[in-house]
Amino acid sequence: MAIREDHSRFRDIIRGRIKENFKKYVSQGEMIGKRENDFVKIPVPYIDIPRFKYGPKQRGGVGQGQGSPGDPMNGEPQEGTGEAGNQPGEHQLEVDVSMEDLAQILGEELELPDIKPKGRPRMDAIKNRYNGIAPVGPAGLRHFKSSYKRALQRYISSGVYTPETPVIVPIRGDFRYRSFKPVVQPQANAVVIYMMDVSGSMGEEQKEIVRLESFWINTWLKKHYKGLEARFIIHDATAKAVEEKTFCSTSESGGTLISSAYKLTKEIIEADYPPNEWNIYPFHFSDGDNWSGEDTRLCMRLLHEFFLPNVNQFGYGQVESKYGSGQFAKDLEREFPDDDRLVVSKIENRDKILGSIKDFLGKGR
What we know:
By secondary structure, the protein is of the alpha/beta class. It has three domains: 1-49 and 91-111, no CATH class; 124-184, no CATH class; 188-361, von Willebrand factor, type A domain (Rossmann fold). Helices cover 35% and strands 21% of the residues. It contains ten helices and eleven strands. The strands form three sheets. The chain has a six-stranded mixed beta sheet, with helices on both faces. The chain has a three-stranded antiparallel beta sheet with strand order 1-2-3. Strand 6, helix 5 and strand 7 form a beta-alpha-beta unit.
């Protein structure tokens, strides 16, 4: 019990440190590369490591024989290098944090509302629910309370129990185990489709911002949709579907036709994600340049006729670039001034990522 309490306190401390440094974690990408299944490794600063300290009756020494603090262990004098400092060193501890915990912290920090899935048919998911006790089972599912009660009943019924020496030793026949049965639970289907402009005006910093923001959007959506699928599209004048690993590491140098990405996304949705069965979240990131006004009009038509009637929300994130005009965001705001199914967010730099996530997820759609 004491170990569990200590572990719980330690987790609370870690959680507090993560919240204190949360903006840094969002804007820096080192933790994203340390994902393992449903956990990420986070370096948590300023946690003191255990160290030996002299007690009030101890005056030092080197363990055996004569010596003074600071003497080298082998008895030979050693020369140090560098200058002495007057500041304590900084220690870092890497801790495993679940994606669910990260999502919870993100929601608390940004005061995000829970998402309400679209009221459409859902796929059934089969899960195991532990709701019974059985006389057989694996050791890992042994139920202590039930086993103890069974042993106590045996002692009392056999007349060997005495309150003065209440020692109960369960035997094999006393052991009871948690049992489960499969239950069918409704599971909301959801897909998030990320589109990114990789034309020459989108530099490495812009793509890194997209990579960071998409990670946190995914983290929040997974909290609400356990079976979330993610698809990735890159585009310049043409669009193609890629793996996540390739999404933010591709460099192109062509022009920009935004409609190429919207057309491919439409094809993917029609082929794999029927809107009457799926909650759909397209996100497009660009620096706002498009090849022509005609192509922009085609994008607006696709949004009017296909995307907005069929998706939960369409997000457009405009990443500031010294080479981009930023015109596309203005066109969207002019075309859809009051439609909350479309969210436009302007991301000037890494420090604006948290605000942009709030823009996208703050409506709970």
